[in-house]
Automatic annotation (TrEMBL):
CDD domains: ABC_NikE_OppD_transporters
UniProt lineage: Bacteria, Pseudomonadati, Pseudomonadota, Alphaproteobacteria, Hyphomicrobiales
Any GO CC annotation of this UniProt entry: plasma membrane
Record bears the keyword Protease: no
Swiss-Prot/TrEMBL keywords: ATP-binding, Nucleotide-binding, Transport
Organism of origin: Neoaquamicrobium microcysteis
Keyword match Nucleotide-binding: yes
This protein's name: ATP-binding cassette domain-containing protein
């Protein structure tokens, strides 16, 4: 029998506009369209990578997923329940289920508190555990992130970036959440340390049955961790699909541009198509495709109409907001295709 798995989180038509209000003497001040019309499901047990250039809206989306910011339009449901509702009635309930790991590990930890007190807070306030249970959990948490128990008495500034990020991860784990949103969790770390933290995250995911949203501007990091990938451009989803298919056969030229920009040994550094060109004004988003000014395949249709996410779909799982998607491997050019 066919069984359907319900999404853990359902993001529907989410929009976040910053600012924008009525002027005192008439007229309207425009706001920044940071996130526009984003819809996606996050399935239990998956790692969904979200990738895009600086300013494309990744962090704004991430903050909304964990309830640190509210959409100005659309809805985000966790296990069927609108998180705006949950936030109003049961903030602790939301924080128990969904946790956030910040980009800058050291500054995300309170410098005046010991690691013990940082990790005890969620155990006490979110889970309501007594002293003995807390002590046990602290031992388990430190062990899970490979840190020595004596580190509990130290302060954040005494740790390297990699160790501090392990503490940030332990703090997120303390609440025993189902979903962790990791916002550029390794971007501030040395490359040698990045791999250790990525491996640790993979171990923890398997061990505790976690679901991750992994945000990064670094395509190679996203490729190594993700089951599915969402590519954001100018506040919108440009492409969404299984990681393997998306990296092997990108259906949006912006994804291809990102892939071409990843440096690799022996790969010549060349200016790739679309690397030049204007970014639209975030106060006044264009009517058509936001990537059109940078896209070699753009025509009048692209400049006047916005492609829906399924305009260049391969199938129901691999979607791309493009009227003229690049050819798939093995496909031959039809009419009008580049
Ligand atoms: N609080 C705010 N007020 C006004 N504009 C904001 C605010 N937060 C974000 N923005 C704007 O929204 C857009 C998206 O920003 P966001 O930080 O989400 O992007 P990002 O992809 O995470 O970039 P980065 O990786 O540099 O953080 C940008 O144009 C940014 O300037």
């Amino acid at each position: 029998m066919h069984s359907t798995v319900e999404p853990l989180m359902r993001v529907e038509g989410v929009e976040r506009i910053f600012g924008g209000r009525r002027k005192l003497f008439g007229g309207h001040r425009a706001g920044v369209h940071a996130v526009q019309d984003v819809s996606l499901d996050i399935m239990p047990g998956e790692t969904l990578g979200i990738v895009g250039e600086s300013g494309c809206g990744k962090s704004t989306l991430a903050r909304m997923l964990v309830g640190l910011d509210q959409p100005t339009g659309g809805s985000i449901r966790f296990k069927g329940r609108d998180i705006a509702d949950t936030l109003r009635n049961d903030f602790n309930g939301l924080a128990r289920n969904i946790q956030y790991v910040f980009q800058d590990p050291v500054s995300s930890l309170n410098p005046r508190k010991t690691i013990r007190s940082i990790l005890e807070a969620p155990l006490k306030h979110l889970l309501g555990l007594g002293r003995k249970e807390r002590a046990e959990r602290l031992g388990t948490l430190m062990d899970a992130v490979n840190l020595r128990p004596e580190f509990l008495e130290r302060y954040p500034h005494e740790f390297s970036g990699g160790q501090a990020q392990r503490i940030g991860i332990a703090r997120a784990l303390a609440a025993d959440p189902e979903l962790i949103v990791l916002d550029e969790p390794v971007s501030a770390l040395d490359v040698s340390v990045q791999a250790q933290v990525i491996n640790l995250l993979a171990d923890l995911k398997a061990r505790f049955g976690l679901t991750y949203v992994f945000i990064s501007h670094d395509l190679s990091v996203v490729e190594s961790v993700s089951d599915r990938v969402a590519v954001m451009y100018f506040g919108r989803l440009a492409e969404l699909g299984p990681a393997r298919a998306l990296f092997a056969d990108p259906r949006h030229r912006y994804t291809r541009l990102l892939l071409d920009s990843v440096p690799a040994p022996g790969k010549p550094i060349v200016a790739c198509e679309g690397s030049e060109g204007d970014l639209p004004d975030p106060y006044d988003p264009p009517a058509g495709c936001a990537f059109a000014p940078r896209c070699p395949a753009a025509d009048d249709l692209c400049r006047s109409q916005r492609p829906a996410l399924d305009a260049g779909a391969v199938d129901g799982a691999h979607l791309a907001a493009c009227f003229h998607p690049p050819l798939l491997t093995g496909e031959t050019a039809g009419d009008g295709q580049l």
